[in-house]
Batch of 2 targets.
Target 1
Amino acid sequence: MTMTEVAERGLVLLGCGKMGGAMLRGWLDGGLAAGAVHVIDPRPGDWLRGTGVHVNAALPESPAIVIVAVKPQMMGDALPTLKAHGNGPTLFVSIAAGTTIAACEAMLGAATPVVRAMPNTPAAIGKGITAIVGNGAAGAGHLDLAEALLRAVGQVVRLESEDQMDAVTGLSGSGPAYVFHMIECMAAAGVAQGLPPGLALHLARATVAGAGALAEAADETPAQLRENVTSPNGTTQAGLEVLMDEKSGLPPLMARTVAAATARSKALRDG
């Protein structure tokens, strides 16, 4: 399945909140014709109507793809409305957190091509990373199409199995909140050492953003980058000796953090 088929058969976006809206802007900026997009949303914003896409109008008979971008608690009401498009050639991509492929198949039909995706919140500014995995009915072409569309909001990785999705949730899905809290803690630590709150927050925010950009752009591993800026007996080494303590430092704390989020993801999935 290709973008040409999307343009010809149409794309349905179910839910156009922050994530759905970010994807839509990316598709339109990337050249997808507005007339090929059909949005279903109970409270469409004025900006949406100005894009030229079809809003809450009659859907194509056999759309190429349906992107399900509603909140997980809304899936039970929203997805069955599209059951007529199940068990056919239409690909369904769900970004609803915690909603398994089996749950989608139960609502749409077991023969429905389904790709489950887990983006994270930086996708709202095109800086996200999304993990995807398909069911047995989703072939290579379906995964290629899902990846092409999801790249509108950042990077995409493919999982070997759906079982990995809970760990993805614990790491990258919940991960932005860990980083935000680290910024808070760094700023508070700066204030404790005598910096004004506004300056401390500015320094912490810019430091994390800059270090993240460097880690992503550099050829070296994060470990090598860390070593590059750590002079023997210098200030960075003094700080790292605290942060890297095997018992009380960041390694065991982060391991427990990601494990707790992963476990909660499994618990929510299993009900």
Target 2
Amino acid sequence: MVKISWEDSIFSDVSKNFVNNPNPDLGEKVEILFRVLKGAPIKSVILCYVRNGDENIIVTNYSTGEFFNYYKCNLKVKQKRIHYYFRIHLNNGEIYYYNKIGLSKDPILKEYNFKIITNKSVDWVKTSTFYHIFPDRFYSGNAISKKEDRGYMSNGYKPKKKMWDEKPGIFEENLCLDFFGGDLEGIKEKIPYLKELGVNALYLNPIFYAISNHRYDCIDYFKIDPYLGDEDTLKSLVDALHKEGIRIILDISINHTGIEHKWLNKNGVFFGEEVGGYNNDVKERDYYFFDEDNNLHFWLDDDRFTTLNYTSQALRDVMYKSDDSVLKKWLSEPFNIDGWRFDAANALGRLDDVQIHYELWRDMREEIKSVNEDAYMVGESWIDCIDFLEGDKWDASINYYGFCQPLRRFLNIVSWFQCNPSDAVGFAATTSQYLAKIPKWTTYKI
């Protein structure tokens, strides 16, 4: 039989096993437990947290069980976010500290503390199995031969209609302008297949009117890309999915639009050479960043993607605040999608001296949740995005930094992230470290 040390037996977390209400409302009291092996040389355990900018402490009460001793205290939740850790005083006068990263003799960093967050989590996600669909390549519900060629040019490239079993062209050859004919009707036809797999939630790459097959270069957020269907097709798909107990979230890029977006188009003609210059006559021009020489700002210096400027109140209104805004339209009747995955979410509202990202996401969350409090908000981020997971911005993240980077390092696929490879010990350490930063409310059902 393996003997466990008292140090290794210490445990607490923000689950129902150790916090009687892990996701409380403001003003509620919560009971918090701390566990350690019976017979541990502990004099007292103190819970430490910051309240009104100063550290507060609560002395825990002691009780004993068959194998463990338990220390518990009651904490009244007077803040939307409470970060706490435990200070452990031993009989010999030594002091230890304990938070999500583990036990330490040194004072610990607050970013790894336990977190109680009052904002309600989206519980349906925690019991969902998602299936990710790239619409153009999933399934065609209409014969490909019935789909006409897209009659435009983009950056000197002409879109190509391809047969289903052809190989996609490489980026330099096709610039993501080869189309195979997958559509929303095809997804609807495959609902029995998805159910057979045990899927109960879908995540679709963008479906709005765009230039490329990936559709992150949107040219009209209010219109379904006709290659995929129309509003009736989307409504029919969502209704059919909901009837079968399957949720659906849509991908959208609101950090930037395609260069041919109608807000930039002088004549209201969407494609290619007919654009003829930037729109100088209407308020939509203020939706974008221009320099003093009237040059558009391109996201990541890619001239296909133009950066949106959320210092414009008019842009905020059209994108998410007005009742008929982009994000509210598709969340509301008759479409009723179940949430959004936001492309390039870490970049939104950030360009040099303009740094309004936190304010912007708080505002957007409030508006989205006013339509549907269970709408899921997932932000894409290539960097450490823990600040967006504090209950007042995103519900979750596409976590490249916390998962993909450690995994690629372990698999020695490191060129994308510009980092060194690691062994299994390094993979476990970096993954555990990032998991320790994530609030429990964003993860599995608590």
